[in-house]
Amino acid sequence: MTEFVEVVRNRRMTRAFEPDPVDPALLDQLVDLAARAPSAGKTQGWHLVVLEGADTARYWDITLPAEKRASFRWTHLLHAPVVALALADPSAYVQRYAEPDKARSGLGTGVDAWPAPYWTIDSSMSVMTLLLAAEDVGLGALFFGVFQRVDEVRRELAIPEHLELIGAIALGWPRRESVSGNGRSAARARRSPDEIIHRGGW
Fold first, then answer.
1. 21-47, pLDDT tens digit by residue?
2. In the predicted model, what is the mean pLDDT of residues 137-162?
3. d(CA 3, CA 166)
4. How far are the Cα atoms of 95, 113, 174 from residue 110, in angstroms, in the given order?
5. Given strand 46-52, what is the order of strands in its sheet?
6. Distance between CA atoms of residues 33 and 52, nearest Å
7. pLDDT cut 90: percent of the chain above it
8. What angle do helix axes 24-34 and 118-136 make, rounded to 10 degrees?
9. b/e per residue, 48-85, with b = 16+ CB within 10 A?
10. In whole angstroms, what is the distance from residue 129 CA to residue 35 CA?
């Protein structure tokens, strides 16, 4: 195992993968760790729709059709042996907070009662934990938004309408000789603690 500080500092969004498969048992191990992320009321209202191997084409054929691939910058991204869609379940939080031990909160009356969408927050923390767990075992991972043909993706993968699509995760072994480089945002300066922290108030 790598020291935590190294895992955090070394984690990058990987855009070039080897096609070698990821052992399903290893994926299960990563998801088990991700499931330990904070969760309001221990609701754990998140899911992953996982496509592996040749099955990943079901995602790419919809969102990046063949005619667009020649101009696609990250050609080796399509070699990722795993594509997982992260989903949040708002109804799970409403149901959990309608239970006797949480009912006094009033959050069990519906999603509009929540001051912040904890289903999105918790699912995002689980995804971040998954990204860190992947780095720890030497896997590369890329979290990216699903902006193209979302309805078609949802239909193809039979994703229930009430689930919120957080984004997608490409996962696999980083390409040994990556030619893809970093994303366009990589050169932006990282904010310092002094720019982030507002001690005692804003």
1. 999 999 999 999 999 999 999 999 999
2. 97
3. 29
4. 9, 6, 43
5. 46-52, 82-88, 164-172, 140-144
6. 20
7. 83
8. 130
9. bbbbbeeebeebbebbbeeeeeeeeebebbbbbbbbbb
10. 8
Strand partners for 104: none
Inform me whether the pLDDT recorded for 102 exceeds 90.
Answer: yes
Has this prediction a pTM greater than 0.70? yes
Q: What tens digit of pLDDT does each residue of 161-190 get?
A: 999 999 999 999 999 865 445 666 767 888
Domains of the chain: 4-177 (3.40.109.10)
Per-residue tokens: 45 = 């209202």
Residue 35: Cβ within 10 Å count:
13
* The two structure tokens encoding residue 110: 């519906």
Give 17's DSSP letter: B
